[in-house]
């Protein structure tokens, strides 16, 4: 099944995040999830849940042509769940900082990391937010804004 | 028998009676490592609710009432909301799934009310 350009970008992002599972970084992630409508996961310590914010049009980066290329900016929220044992005395802020740092490291590891396998024209990190889930779990949301172009009449077709 | 004892006995024989509203679920202590045990619980299956305040992630919520006991329920001293799990059907008639215990909502000597997501 062909993927839309934005889903191809998401696939590259998920693949890079998955290298934190049993990887070389300090944070040993247990799973990386893109949730279903009813929530196909249960919160766990050192879990990543990737969600999408509303996409924005970036009209100043559209390109003329036949068909023209439309530019979009998609924010992916990388939710890093931190739920250590009640007996763990480590600062939860320290665990969250470390988690966010390792996420940034693996996503930016390729030299042309911002192109996401040729599907995007730019990517930038936005402000990191503390997760607000009450007592349920701590952690941070690391948002990344990815800008890409597609054909006006075919969102499956990437445009330079 | 003291009131203290009656509360403890009622939690097991009255509130968590499987002939009434309780059901058998599995509790996985020690953050899911090691052995599980079957316990009696009254499970309130709530609708899907936002898990984070930004509304980006939604999860079903389960309010689970159990005896405060390390034998028939979950004792408040052993509970670890940083990873303990309960295996329960997300919907009546469906296969049981592992759900994390995310919050201790209320507690007394007889019972615990915990939230799973």
Task: Give the helix proportion of chain A (percent range).
Answer: 10-25%
Identify the quaternary structure here.
heterodimer
What is the strand tally of chain A? 8
Q: Would you list the SSEs of chain A in sequence order as H and E?
A: HEEEEHEEEE
Q: How many β-strand runs of chain B?
A: 6
State the separation between the terminal residues of chain B, measured CA to CA. 38 Å
Strand content of chain B: 35-45%
**Unreliable stretches covering 5 or more consecutive residues of chain A:** none
Key phrases:
A: 160 residues, alpha+beta, eight-stranded mixed beta sheet, 19% helix, elongated, B: 117 residues, six-stranded antiparallel β-barrel, 6 strands, 44% strand
Provide a short characterization of the protein structure.
The complex is a heterodimer of chains A (160) and B (117). Chain A is of the alpha+beta class.
What would you note in describing this structure?
The complex is a heterodimer of chains A (160) and B (117). Chain A has 2 helices and 8 strands; from the N terminus they run αββββαββββ. Chain A is 19% helix and 32% strand. In chain A, a hairpin with a 7-residue loop joins strand 6 and strand 7. Chain A has a domain of 110 residues. In chain A, strands 1, 2, 3, 4, 5, 6, 7 and 8 form an 8-stranded mixed sheet that branches. Chain A has 160 residues and is α+β, with helices and mostly antiparallel strands. The mean pLDDT of chain A is 94. With 117 residues, chain B is mainly β. Helix content of chain B is 11%, strand content 44%. Chain B is built from 1 helix and 6 strands, in the order H-E-E-E-E-E-E. Chain B has a 6-stranded antiparallel β-barrel. In chain B, strand 4 and strand 5 form a beta hairpin. The N and C termini of chain B lie far apart (38 Å). Classes of the chains: A alpha+beta (160), B mainly beta (117). At the A-B interface, loops of A face strand 3 and strand 5 of B.
